[in-house]
Design goal:
Layout: H1 16-20, H2 32-45, E1 53-59, E2 62-68, H3 74-78, H4 83-98, E3 103-108
Parallel strand pairs: 2-3
Antiparallel strand pairs: 1-2
Helix pairs in contact: 2-4
Length: about 110
């Protein structure tokens, strides 16, 4: 069985902390790492990475992350039957929970 503990390197051999800006995580407040991971994952999936925008705000004590992508990339981010979107939401919720924050991801037009 493969050991899946995080040692700072992702499966591609790059340092994920450098990719998502872990050094700046404390500067932006609660959930900044979750927002950075959402941005990283979205840019990795879409064709037009420059069109990816992640907005964050706190609503009713919960971090709400809104993901905007180019119209042509919406299908890639949502996936068949919403499976990619659900996977993204699960990963972001887990990262936020590790930071002690409850988070949701909205994919907006």
């Amino acid at each position: 069985m493969t050991d899946l503990r995080h040692d700072g390197d992702d499966v591609y051999g790059t340092d994920l902390d450098d990719e998502v800006g872990a050094d700046d995580a404390g500067d932006e407040g609660a959930g900044s790492r979750a927002a950075a991971v959402l941005d990283y994952v979205a840019r990795s999936i879409v064709d037009d990475a420059d069109a990816v925008v992640v907005d964050s705000e706190i609503e009713r004590g919960r971090l709400v992350l809104r993901l905007r992508v180019a119209p042509d990339d919406m299908g890639k981010v949502i996936g068949r039957r919403g499976r990619v979107a659900q996977a993204i939401r699960t990963v972001v919720r887990a990262i936020a929970a590790a930071e002690g924050v409850e988070a949701t991801v909205d994919i907006v037009d």
